[in-house]
Amino acid sequence: MTVLPLRPPRRVRHETVTLAHGGGGSAMRDLVEDVFVSAFAVHEEGQPLEDQARLSLAELMARGDRLAFTTDSFVVDPLEFAGGDIGKLAVCGTVNDLAVGGAVPVALSCAVVIEEGMAVATLRRIAASIARTAREAGVRVVTGDTKVVARGACDKLFITTSGVGVIRTGLDLGIARARPGDVVLINGPLGDHGAAIMAARGELAVSAPVASDCAPLNGLIGALLDAAPGTRLIRDATRGGLAAVLNEMAEASNIGVRVAESAIPIRPEVRGFCDLLGLDPLYLGNEGVAVAVVPPEQADAALAALRAHPLGVLAAAIGTATAERPGRVVMDTPFGGTRIVDMLVGDPLPRIC
Amino acid sequence: MTVLPLRPPRRVRHETVTLAHGGGGSAMRDLVEDVFVSAFAVHEEGQPLEDQARLSLAELMARGDRLAFTTDSFVVDPLEFAGGDIGKLAVCGTVNDLAVGGAVPVALSCAVVIEEGMAVATLRRIAASIARTAREAGVRVVTGDTKVVARGACDKLFITTSGVGVIRTGLDLGIARARPGDVVLINGPLGDHGAAIMAARGELAVSAPVASDCAPLNGLIGALLDAAPGTRLIRDATRGGLAAVLNEMAEASNIGVRVAESAIPIRPEVRGFCDLLGLDPLYLGNEGVAVAVVPPEQADAALAALRAHPLGVLAAAIGTATAERPGRVVMDTPFGGTRIVDMLVGDPLPRIC
């Protein structure tokens, strides 16, 4: 990101982005100042913006003992959909990656690759959405980068966010930490995001049954960890869905996982959507679903904490970790049978995040 | 990045990348393990790879008092060129953004957006280049992300790297800190990168006159700061070239800048290339050129330190900060005249980084 002097922000002079806006000259500076810096308010300290943000290590250490660092690229198509847009997704995705590791998110970076011809008005809406979601999550966007590529060299807009956060002392979450007897919890219904994106593509002649669940989960996860400090692991069920999380956990922890299909919350409209299209909601991507594994003696407190949070009113205990069939995920069906829940080779839905 | 269990890394089963490799399922896991994780050796601690990397804050605090955080997307075309490739560029760019702010780089993230159909062999070469450059810079790639988009939705490969580093206590570099009388230094010749990229595109019917200068500058900058601890600011002259850096500095510091054209190192072959194509090397992007502004009493020591480093053998003092014409960059020409060096509206060369 270019350096910005101390004066009123410049305004971009075009309604669409041109290659000149990515060239490192004054056109790029105008675009960055007008669209991104003004939205993110990174300028609040009255300092010129440098290529790097600076954070006091003493202030970070007051909050925990380890720095968490994560990154994600977002290529969702379409850019805007029921319940969110690529900007909201880019903030939530990285905030949630930090939060599921037990970190309190502190600062985000935001790098954009823009296709020539992109409407500046759309960029402004997405930048405003990034800013709003960051405020909601209590995190600041502190640095960024802007590239513009020729028409046809990228599809409209890609955003990469990285995040730093602080992990409180004593917390030790990890995908390999589940043990037999542990209880598997989720905070909300499956498939809302995947269904919203599919419907938004307009290829299916179905209307959006539901809005994306895209949300920053750091508040919910903080409440969960307060109530259940012995929590073994938390994961967000994004690409690959709940099935991928349960399989990764089963393999990494060398345990079996047994879940009850009837206990898994799924909205009736999402179930209907999946039935119509022959999809399994276990594999649909989510952007507001956390899976937590807690020791049995803390399961009630953990579930109560989830349900007390606005993003967890439909939280449920969906299964347990077992000593049997390590590495395998088995689901009890409502008809008294069982089936293996495998990891898919690939997601049937590209570009859902 | 998906979670990786403790077992031998999986191998990707195709020679080209398919959409399934971005879907969050087992195909993506195989690609990530085979191509990226094995190259980056992020697995060295024998722990499963989580979505976030964790760094000890106590260890960071032992090295300085502030955390630096930066990000850059790389969309260079072509992916490979004389002197480097997009992977080397992605490491150097972020390492250099940290280093010019006075930070010692500690850890990088690496997020890739891959076009369906990309050759896995090319990805492997680029991943190896990332790993090699990171080793050279003394920094670790600790976390990442992989997305695959359909053919035509991106041009081959984009890489976004973010970096964290530590700024040593007492150091205070900033674009607004130059004062009249300060000396402007650069470590090496201008335009090598821009010329190498233009030649590599093959559109100009000229062969590569020179290799890109792409290099991690953190070692050079460390040596400079040891020799000249009063250094006011350092910038790398990437997009927009030397002209952009000098103009940003003149504006932010509210000083004039006066440079001598004859003092600016430019390789004869790059000068010839520019003459042939009507380009001004002051505006060409570089990936291994640092501009440093130092107080006059430390200028000799600073220049000696630069020249003693392998990346600074052609270092030169090219001008001074002045009280006259604040905000303006003026160049003395070899013919006894002067000319204003303005900031361009846009770079004539898109996608050079």
Automatic annotation (TrEMBL), chains A, B:
<dbReference type="Pfam" id="PF02769">
    <property type="entry name" value="AIRS_C"/>
</dbReference>
<dbReference type="InterPro" id="IPR036676">
    <property type="entry name" value="PurM-like_C_sf"/>
</dbReference>
<dbReference type="GO" id="GO:0051604">
    <property type="term" value="P:protein maturation"/>
</dbReference>
<dbReference type="InterPro" id="IPR036921">
    <property type="entry name" value="PurM-like_N_sf"/>
</dbReference>
<protein>
    <submittedName>
        <fullName>Hydrogenase expression/formation protein HypE</fullName>
    </submittedName>
</protein>
<feature type="domain" description="PurM-like N-terminal">
    <location>
        <begin position="62"/>
        <end position="167"/>
    </location>
</feature>
<feature type="domain" description="PurM-like C-terminal">
    <location>
        <begin position="179"/>
        <end position="330"/>
    </location>
</feature>
<comment type="similarity">
    <text>Belongs to the HypE family.</text>
</comment>
<dbReference type="InterPro" id="IPR016188">
    <property type="entry name" value="PurM-like_N"/>
</dbReference>
<dbReference type="InterPro" id="IPR011854">
    <property type="entry name" value="HypE"/>
</dbReference>
<dbReference type="Pfam" id="PF00586">
    <property type="entry name" value="AIRS"/>
</dbReference>
<dbReference type="InterPro" id="IPR010918">
    <property type="entry name" value="PurM-like_C_dom"/>
</dbReference>
